[in-house]
UniProtKB/TrEMBL annotation:
Record-annotated Immunoglobulin domain positions: 6-99
Record-given protein name: Immunoglobulin domain-containing protein
Coiled-coil residues: none
InterPro entries: Ig-like_dom_sf (IPR036179), Ig-like_fold (IPR013783), Ig_sub (IPR003599), Ig_V-set (IPR013106)
Pfam families, alphabetized: V-set
Amino acid sequence: AKYPNGATKSAHLGGEVNISCQIPEEHKVHFCKEDDNHICQNISTSTVTEMNGSSERNEERVFTVSISNVSVRDAGVYWCGAETRDTHLTFISLNTKIQLNLISE
């Protein structure tokens, strides 16, 4: 598989965690967090810092989302993927699932 299906990350309370995902070059990144009803709530892309991937033909970009000052409510399941727009439709393909666990001292 070209995309990692999932990853588990651990973070300390008050610490910082980086979540990375790879999306095709021409697409917009979509990053969201699952709520209690298993609905993925969009997270403002202002928290997304873009890093260029070192792919051979530059077709993939690596996006890194940094969450600093991690709190209890940051724990949970995050998804990220690509967003493409057609004339009136937005298609979102979520290809990476990240489980964020908290390490309590």
